[in-house]
Specification:
Helix content is 27%, strand content 22%. It has 331 residues and is of the alpha/beta class. The protein has a single domain, classed as Metallo-dependent phosphatases (Purple Acid Phosphatase, chain A, domain 2). It has a seven-stranded mixed β-sheet with strand order 1-5-6-7-8-10-9, with helices on one face. Helix 6 packs parallel to helix 7. The longest helix is centred in the middle third of the chain and has 20 residues. The relative contact order is 0.14.
């Protein structure tokens, strides 16, 4: 069985690099305009919305039986709009192939209900497909935050947000080292800032996952986890890439995998060698988004989802992270 799964996975990877042409989009679309942001965001007590992996399924993946989830993707964006968040974090893989402008036009159409919302992305591996410069250029046209380097930070009330580029093979060794130095210094600086109560880190690739398709990302563990674990203020580490929802607690720190924005979902491993998942849902996890609500003494994390072919959202997960000791409160 493992051999079959492995062969299936590599077939998908090979076909993923073949040009994918999405359905044509009727009418002319103006380029989406996303708000340019200063380092400090206006705080208004509204939640932070998070969604990962909005990309469509390629034609080759569909030929192999993987699901296409256009309706669910649109429903998620519509539901996020109803939540009226302060800002939206995108956990990468906004499109399947970053160098394909037609796919970006589709993305613009899907995300257009949120055009007036500040949107903060991280770079996914699909943004670098297949010509790095073309995909990066498309991201920069939409998101000025990554115009110079693809890592940055923002402050929202008493919460610091750190956005990292986890695509080590796509960065030069010098860039990867520069990002690590910046990250370490930023966490040290925020630790000393009395106005900051919690630090959230966002990457595309997850340091930990039970996905049968991807697995743990050693580069992320080696580069970013030690400073995160040593900090008193770091509260949660958010990632996408694995098209599922997972919630792990390691040394009282939360690690959340949120790749449920519409990409074809994956099966999770089971067994004693797996990470202990706080989410007890069986089977393939639902499409979903996350809300982060900063409060005076804690962060509240709310995850809402929908099943395939349905439009009624339900609670997937809900927990609090206390600022004082960063312990996970009872659900």
């Amino acid at each position: 069985m493992k051999e079959i799964i492995s062969k299936f996975f590599w077939v998908i990877i090979i076909f993923s690099f073949i040009e994918f042409q999405p359905d044509s989009i009727s009418g002319s679309l103006q380029r989406a305009h996303y708000n340019d942001l200063s380092d400090t965001l206006s705080f208004n007590s509204k939640p932070i919305a998070v969604v990962g992996d909005l990309q469509r399924t390629s034609v080759w993946e569909m030929m192999l039986g993987r699901e296409q989830n256009d309706t669910e993707r649109e429903n998620i964006i519509s539901e996020i709009k109803k939540e009226d968040p302060a800002l939206l974090v995108l956990l990468g893989d906004m499109v399947f192939e970053g160098s394909d402008r037609k796919q970006w036009e589709y993305f613009d159409k899907v995300i257009s209900p949120l055009n007036n919302l500040p949107i903060l992305p991280v770079m996914g591996n699909h943004e670098y497909y297949t010509e790095n410069s073309s995909g990066v250029r498309e991201v920069k046209r939409r998101f000025p935050q990554v115009n110079s380097v693809s890592w940055y930070s923002r402050i929202y009330g008493n919460t610091a947000l750190i956005f990292l580029d986890s695509n080590k093979p796509k960065l030069t060794p010098a860039q990867w080292t520069e990002q690590q130095i910046w990250y370490n210094e930023m966490i040290s600086y925020l630790e000393e800032d009395p106005s900051i109560r919690s630090i959230l880190v966002f990457t595309h690739h997850p340091p930990y996952t039970n996905s049968i398709v991807t697995g743990d990302e050693r580069d992320i563990q080696n580069a970013f986890i030690k400073p995160f674990m040593q900090s008193e203020k770091t509260a949660a580490f958010f990632s996408g890439h694995a098209h599922t929802y997972e919630h792990f607690i390691k040394e009282n720190k939360s690690f959340i995998v949120s790749g449920g924005g519409g990409g074809p979902r994956v099966i999770l491993k089971k067994g004693e060698d797996c990470h202990i998942d706080q989410c007890r849902l069986s089977g393939i996890r639902p499409f979903h988004y996350v809300l982060i609500q900063p409060n005076k003494n804690s962060l509240e994390i709310i995850v809402k989802g929908i099943n395939k072919g349905e439009n009624k959202f339900f609670l997937v997960d809900n927990f609090k992270i206390e600022y004082s000791q960063n312990n996970i409160a009872s659900k």
